[in-house]
Structure formats: C-alpha cells, structure tokens
Amino acid sequence: MPWGALGVGTTVGADLSGLEFGELSDVSALLSLPLFALYGLASLVLAGGAAALRRHGAEAAALLAGGAANALGGAYAAAAPMFGALGGGLTGSNVGSNALFMPLQVEAAAGTGSSVALIAGIQNVAGSHASFLSPQRLVLAATATGLVGREGEIAKAAVAPVAVVLLLLAAVGVVASSSGG
Fold it and tell me: Which of 41, 98, 117, 179 shows the smallest number of beta carbons within 10 Å?
C-alpha cells in the first residue's frame, strides 16, 4: 500500500476508477518504487464533495477522454502520466490530481483498450510525484529548509527526478499496453 499523499490519493483514485483499493494500491506501489520515499502528505481538496464530483466529473471526463483516446489511440498510455503530473502540479495534491483527471484516465483507458488498473495507477503515481512541483509545495519546502526566496532553485532541483519518474511511467505504460497488460 502506498503511504502519505499517495495513500489518500489511492483511496480516492480507487473510488473514482471503480477499482478495488488493493488492486490500485498494488499497481501504484510498484510504479512508485523509483522515488517513493521523497513525497509526503497532501491536502484533501474536493470542491463540492465526492458526490458532486462523481455526478459532473464523469460527464466532463467522458468528453475529454473521448477526444484524448481518439487523438492518441495506442499512444495514450505514454501520455497518461502527463495528465497526472498536470493535476499534481496544478493542485499540489495527489487527491486533487485524481479528482481532476482520474475519471478522464479511466474513460480513456477503456476507450483505447488499455488496462484501467494500469492507467489509474499511472495517474495516481504521476499526480503524487509531480505535486512536489506545485508553487505551494515549493514554498513549503523553502520555508521548512530556511531557503525562502530560493524556490526557483528548489524547483530546478526537483524537476529532474520528477521527469525521470514520468518517463519511467510512460515507458511502463507503453510496454504494458503493447504486451496486452
């Protein structure tokens, strides 16, 4: 089971993807291994509550996912980490990333014939790792380490490890999708 922000995000992500918690947790834990220990707790940000998100989020996700799946086809698995990363970077939260993009990821996975568990796991891990690049996380890191005013330096140092994780997730997605996983 992934811990910290990824643990909370896994709970929400499993609910939004329709997967069992254990299934998404196992996939996410495997995908998290490269930089698992570097990320901490995230804030829970769900405007309108889970019911409103499920009611309206699924409609928006279906529209976006249909476009993404049609445009990218079999290459969708390589792009999936970028959606998770975008959500993590925008919200500073794995939960926020999953709230924004998990429904889209699930719909796109189904539309391209990819494994829903794999794409949901990629979304979950990418959102968690990229949340470190959000402005609020950078300010928190700078404040906690006495580097206030040097947030840009912290961001530059964090970009490479996050990029490596995203590339690894894209590669796993492509390999697994091409092998029928």
Answer: 179
Give residue 142's identity as a one-letter amino acid code: A
CB 103 within 8 A of CB 66: no
**pTM score over 0.70:** no
> What is the separation of C-alpha 45 from the centre of its chain, rounded to a whole number of angstroms?
15
Please tell me what DSSP assigns to residue 56. Answer: I
> What are the tens digits of pLDDT across the range 101-130?
898 888 888 888 889 999 999 999 999 999
Q: Tokens 């700078």 map to which residue?
A: 142
Give the helix ranges, DSSP H, for 131-150: 135-145
- Model pLDDT for residues 67-109, shown as the tens digit of each residue: 666 666 778 888 899 989 988 988 898 888 998 889 888 888 8
> Phi and psi (nearest 5°) for 15?
-65, -45
C-alpha to C-alpha distance for 124 and 122, rounded to whole angstroms: 5
DSSP 8-state assignment for residue 35: G
CB 93 within 8 A of CB 131: yes
**What is the distance between the alpha carbons of residues 175 and 100, in angstroms, rounded to a whole number?**
26
Longest dimension (CA), the chain: 48
Instruction: Please give the Cα distance from 3 to 149 (Å, whole number).
Output: 30
- Report residue 127 as tokens: 């959102």
The pLDDT of residue 119: 93
Q: How many domains does the chain have?
A: 1
